[in-house]
Sequence to fold (100 residues):
Amino acid sequence: MNEQDNKSPQILNSASNLLGFCFVVLTSIRFFKLSDTTIIDEITAICFVLFMFSCLCAFLSIRSKTKRADLYETLADYSFLAGLIVIFVMTLLFLMELIH
Fold:
């Protein structure tokens, strides 16, 4: 893999930041006892798993010296994108609940 094409450090950094965001959302939902009235905590848990998987794959891609590094980076990339899409949906649901 070409060092210039290596996206894994950026994916690891961004995914770990969004993982922290998921922790804050889950903690806030539990603190305000909203977990029984919304599905946002379940969606946040899905985001949590996707970003954790993305962090793991990005780390493995950085540390791997074999051809699997490209596979790990691709997995990290797609799971990060899926996590972003799920966060987008969660944000829309959150905004709709605030409006009603």
About this structure: The helical segments are 8-31, 40-63, 68-99. Residues 35-100 form one domain. The chain has a mean pLDDT of 88.
